Queue: 3 jobs
Job 1
Amino acid sequence: MNKTLLFISSLIVLVFFAQCGKDNQVNQENIALTDHVMEFVDDHIQEQLDLASDKEVPEMLESLSVWLSEQEGVINAVPYRDSIVVTYVDESESIVTVYDMTLQDETEYDFYQFFNRNGSEISQEQVMIGNHNVFIYDAYALDENLREGDSIDMLFSFYDYQPTHLKDEQCTVESLRQLTQYGYILLATHGAPNSFATRELVTSENRLQYLDDRLAGKLRVYSTVYKIENGYEYSGRYYWVTNKFINELEGRFNNAVVFNSSCEGLKGDAPLKKAFLSKGAATYYGFDNDVESYYKYYASACIAEALLRNYTTGEAFDLFASVYPQSSYGTAFAMAGDDDVTWYEIPDVPTDGLVAYYPFNGNADDASGHGNNGILSGQNVPVPTTDRKGRANSAYEFGGYYNRNWIRVPNSETIQFDKEFTVAFWIQQTELAGMDGWGSYSTTGPGFAAVCKAGDGNACYPGLYITTGIGKDGEGLHVGTNNSNGNAHNHDTWNHEINYDYRRYQLGDWIHVSLIVENVNKILCINGLEVARDELGKEADFTSMNQQDLYIGVMAGWNLESGYGTAWYPFYGKIDDVRVYNRALDPFEIKALARE
């Protein structure tokens, strides 16, 4: 049986570092010790999983808890359902989750960190989804250690929402009469294409109560398994709610999102799906066949967490489908309806903190009002071209290795990088052959510098640069960023690089790239979504970099304009809407830039 450990903040259960309501200051020694512990756990957790690979999940949890508790700097590690809550000396917490991974062929260990939930001032009243009322219809849990509704309840509670969470016998027919008042609905139950199960047992007392609904076809009665214990199935006759029941509910769903995690909810013509969508629901998620507990658990948790991070309903679906395209016996996850619904309203494109903005509307002038105008440079200067919306003279095209051209923005007092800043832009890469790290033409390992403000212009010296290239195994595009504090002979003081192999996007696709520096973190976003982050480095010092010019379309080597330098990693393709902020944008603002 394959097993995995997932530290996934945006997918299922969170890795988060939140102070536990304490006002006291955490000393630097504790922070350093915690960093060390986290690095050690990150490096050695997989071998612990391998050692426990022959154990069932509860035994694995216990074994892993003991190991975590023994690490220096860990106060305790306590199993909780399918998770382990780890408390560190600085009072921060992590939730470690272990799953029985029958879904994958190979053991996998992933580690992601994502934006803090409090990163935006967006009002909870400004929404695109109908409302933030959450309804969890948690009728059946064949495994109490993996109860789907509890996971969703925990996610929404972490974001300060209070779901209506009904469990087991609470899941009656009557509890569904007011279903249209909810904006997010999870049906964690049994089901079929045209109905889903309640937990209300058919009795002599309620037969007459629901007789009219049964005669009208709103309710059906089926035998349902409600518990499996010691290999024995316990079943009973329960009421099932049909598509007609949903169609004839009082009121309408107001742009709601419905997740039907029962079997066959999107099989074939799926009358139940049609009922919800025709009644005003915006998006409907479900499965095309029988579905196992683990698969539905991962899918519903992933969707809920992604929506709470303001992914669109379509982006949330793509996120899960890209990791788990189908369950171990072929059940596929699917969606219907609107793919552009978000939990919060997307704000306007931010202007606060904007110190340079290049819309490239026929020129390279700075539209921020700070006068940081660009200078078209190179033997054959960049030429105006169509942008991502097909508008003429609204972007610039750069010529790559054999026609090196760029835009230089002279250094100024306003384009100065410190502990917080953001660089964002659009690119359309049209060639994957260019300059390699030795300055030679290459078709296998080239790099392309989109935006650069890198020390004296050499990659081995202090600076920051954002590059693209060929993705893993030659597929798709690669986006990376680096910054270093060392020099050509002392790489030990370099800061970390963050990269993302973007297989879904190929040559000719427009993609939006954002780099956010927020205190000690560097965060890389593609098309408005965080894809990677790393620490900036404890010795981060932008002094040298802040003495240099900003370059678009090339990494400047030495004094490029005087003829003594080299145009490193010349970009091949289009660049547009370059923005530089003197603050770290929040995830909602990044989404706004990517949707502009």
Job 2
Amino acid sequence: MLLKSFNTLILCHFLVMLIAQTDPILMRVGNSDVRVSEFKYIYEKNNGASADYSQKSLTEYLDLYTKFKLKVEKAKQLRLDTITSLKTELDGYRRQLASSYLIDKEVTDFLLHELYDRMKEDVEFAHIFMPVADNASNIQKEEAKDKLRDVKSKLVAGMKFEDAAKEFSQDKTTAAKGGQMGYFTAKLPSGFYAVETALYNTPIGQVSDIIDSRIGYHLIKVMHRRPARGTVEVAHILLNNDQAKLADSLYTALKAGADFDKMALQYSLDKSTNKNGGKLPPFGINTLDRTFEDAAFGLRENGEISAPFMTKSGWHIVKRLNKPVQDSYDIFVRKMKSQINKDQRFDSAKLKLVSDIKKAAGFKQDKFELSKFTSTLTEDFYSYKWAPAPITDDKMLFSFGGDQIFKVSDFANYCKKNTKTRLKYDKSKPIYETVEELFNEYVNESAMAYEEKSLEVKYPDFKSLMREYEEGILLFEATKINVWDRANQDSVGLAKFYDINKSNYQWAEKAGIDEVKIGTNDKKLAEKIYKFVSKGDVSKLDEKFNKKTKVVDIQHVEFEKNSKDIGDIEWKTGAMTPLILDPGKVTYSFKKVQKLVPAKIKTLAEARGYVVADYQDYLEKQWIESLGKEFNVVIYKDTVHQLKK
């Protein structure tokens, strides 16, 4: 026992030393260490492309992060991290993040890397196919598999694949050709992920196991692999089958420097492209006639022109315009991430993840107990009113890691709560099949929840993310107590702050302006009104000019000095803008300054929003200053220096 304890101490010491070497301490705030990995995570996340690790950038962000850590250290000293409501809030964030994070890391990232690598190769294959209807029963599915099992045994015994395809394959299009499908490349359509996987995992010349797809079952033989052709952009000239001589003469002229666009316009019979120089949309393999594709992808340089060749459509001359290279991985992810999560492969990969979790966790289940539970069920199980009968002998149904146990009653309650799931099954479906599917769903959900508990250990980024959330909650609460609430509730302190700084809160100098609009394009009348106002104020305008009909409209407004809305009017009492005819030439208008209002200090009530905001800034600076005195801060300059680039 003593030896075991000693060995444990040695191991712990070794781990501490290893962490110190690989992830040194960058700074210490109070009793808390900040390691390089923590700082790099938050520095890169918040600075993005500006995270250049320059001296200036590091110094500025280190100062910000030190202030942040001082606040967090105070929050911990106040034991805010023990408050039930805050712990509950953090647990809620974790539940939301954990599932999506695990799926992103273990499923989405895997599928994206896998697909990106697969897209680098085209695979030529042949298949033997047995169709299965969407609504086929399990018995019908097994019958189709049995047929392929029999075919596979014949192949093992020495029968040639092409002969077996001709005799047994139900794909009438390819059976006569020995099952030849030609070259394909990832990504195959949704529902064919297993087929795609077989293409890329089966060695050349060998036959796969039975593969299922959304249309049935397949045996696949991989014939060849080649670097992926990707996509190509070409232009072409199309001629009739009997125009071989014309094709040769055009090719000769093009090689001598003739303009391809003009040739296409004059001679090409492809009416959909000849007006734009014969340009076709970009295409990949299995899009056009195979002979046409081979010729197009056979051109090695942009601008290269093929010799005339014939397809079912006629004679072609092809010019390569562009050969796009494969997207970088980052661009590929931006294009494909949303698509791949909707593909059937996503469900397949998720099931594989669950299988791996179960295996790693030592998953055990008691099928006998599940069978006993199933035997107690009747057709009422398909009703929303169903409730599980009392379970007197509540035994383990399955477990993870030997310590997380799920009993029969847990599964029964799961079935009760998931009414919608239970009711989606047809009553004609045997109850044992329905229970089996529900059980599998429950196990899968439980496996994911089990794995989510260890995310911090398995993924340093998730640990950093949760630390960021936790410290963010603590920072918010501590700042609320020490700054925001105080600024709003400390009326005496706010008033004192206002008295000291009230010169910062002033109404700007204003002008009281009369805007006069004249509802006529009669220039003489407008000039008469303008002259009348220039000699006095506007108070008598209505009495003098609006006797019979309203001609003049007056708006009294105030503008701050230098406001763009008043134009070039002189800033003095009595100043007027010129008389202006509006763009529609139906009315006139002008402005007159009636009075100037000098600048004055706002009252606390008038400036309250600005004063509170400034008071909060003041309180925060005071708070940070006091925290700097309360908690010792040590920054290891050598470690910081090593971060510089």
Job 3
Amino acid sequence: MIGAAMRLVLVLFIGFISCVNVAFASFPSANYPNGVRPRLWLTQERVTALNTAMNTDTAEWMRFKALCDDLLTTDPEDLWQGVQSAIAPLALMYVLTQNDAYAARAFYFMDEVSDNYEDSGDAGHIDHGYLALGYDWLYDHALMTPAKKAQLIAKMEKLSEEMWSDYNGSGIDGNGQDTDAIIVSGAHHLMFGCALFGDSNEAVDMLDRSWWLWENGQGAPKSSGQLQYTLRQPIREWVRKAMGGHWHTGFMYFMGTDSNGLGAYYMSFRSACGYDPGVQEPELKEFWPNVVRTILDLTDPARTGFHYTGDWQDPWGFSDLSYVYKLINMASYESGIIGESLWNSYGRGFSGRIDEGYHNDEFKEFFYSDPLVTPKNPYSAGLPEVRFCDGNDFLFFRDGWDTTARWGLFSGQGTIPADHQAPDVGNFFLFREDDYLTKGRRIYGGVDIGPAYNNMAIQNSLPNGSPIMTGSEGPASMERYRGKSSMEGTNDATIFAYAMMQGDDQWNDDTNQWEPINRVSSYRRHFFWSGDNAIVFDRLRTNDVGWSTYRLHAQTEPTLSGATITQNSANGRHALLHQTLEPSGCTFVKVNETQTWQDVFEDYEINKEERLWHYAISPPDGNRVNMLSVMQMGNAGKSSIDGLEHLTSSGQTGAKLGDWCVLFSSEEQLRSMSQYTIAAPANRLHHLVCDLESGVYSLSINGKIQVNRIHVADRDNTAYFITNHTSGPMVVTLESCKLIPPVTNLLLGD
């Protein structure tokens, strides 16, 4: 009896898996496609815009027409993106021109599509959904005979079924973080279901499959005990987590196949199903405008390329980035759909202000174009120079939007990444006028041997020195941040950026352990930047002794003099000086990354620009490490750090660097009082005192109260003020006060 019961449970369990669980993720019946054709993508608004573009000979139209004309004679074997890629352009060209030659060629390519998805390449990278567009857009064409229609229906039914059972793992198992595989294949199911609704009994199953991935995801459930990076996450959750405009493993990665799938989801939902994620799911509304903003934030001031944020792909310039124009048109269009017309205009204005590059998706570039939108120059829009992206934990900073700005990014990478594991270490890069002074390293899965390839990383016992977060429920995050803000009572226009990242319990020994061993009990990284000055302060508390290593990456071979590292930009015009103020007794080892990359991957496709140098900086052995580093940029030939003083007393540490003074607590605790002495104060010195309890503070210089109303907010726990003092050493005392006398001038002096 017990055996029979167990067999019944087993049968039910197998059925549970094989039935794909679509019953638990049914597509909303109120949003089933209606019978009007075309139902996919070609809304009246789109048709009007595309006709206008055609009749006015826009650049996008000219490229699109050239593509379609080439496809009339192109051999299918020459289509590196698969025969599917030719269907939608030709079908659209027929819709616009009514030229039967394009329609006939589209039918030819639809016939060429195999009903075995593996014959045409990875379902996460090939536009199988274009078969649905061809079917829908050419539905009433004379060549769409009943026999042809039945043939195409059977082909899409088989493709969806095979993708679901083999590629998507029936929505149950498989890698739950392979974003392009899940998003793009999910869009295929959606497009097939929309095209075939009313014509195929399996159309609802296709819609349910797409909805399962949108609402539930693919991979192991949290209750399974599987490794965290394999756990199921809904597509909508990835969108929500990427609200800053980034994708978790890197913006460059998102620009490729992931954006193809996400754009197809949005357009198909809206056009065929009357379901607009930006309306029905308002928490997703700002995603596309933030993509436009992130494109601007990540574009170097010289406007020649993007900074990559952890992707495996090479950091090419615009001349090689074939997907830039597709994505900016898509993101601009989607911004306009939700009423963000300004970001629509800024995105289209950006496209006209970057170097002419390589185009390989003329269909999407044209489809999302809109000649009725007036492009606006985003670089003259007065956009903020400092921006914090909550959730993704990116802090962008620049001191202007011109082509010679100083620019950079501080990244906490504050959540479990969507696609592959990435460490929460607090990466940063610095760029001066026309080149990088230091850069991060790609941290995509697979680079699992050799030295650490991220910037100023804490190194544990893993071979590549990167922290691993498997099993962690509390990923690192930026908990404090502050940027440029006007000061009451002054004309201060100083631009600066500050953030603090916490990464407690983030590191363990073995990615495959079910019970990971956390090696870090607490970790804080403070980052400060203003102009040519940068300060990084780390507090590290561990369960082990002597395993932390920091790495400063250089474009050219660096040199070491005492504790000062000097490195030049690749073009030789700029220098960066780095000094470790504490702890004393650090060891410095110079690493030739050309050789280490060669040792790791003989033929790995890494640009020469990434085969660089770095200094590994190791503090003395200890399980309590405070690491204070200062950096100052300047023109080539710079040989000393200006205005440098190491400030340390009464449980605090910091530095005077140039015209800045920045102080931190030596422990992971907020304090209500700070006092420090500056031996050689400069006229007009900026102060940022961190790790303060929130409240109101009084400020004294050499015992004389200057102001009794400096506010410290919970958001950043910092006090910012400016002093004018030139008559000898300056003792600064900042302490919490309860009485709040009238405000005095915040430009302080003697």
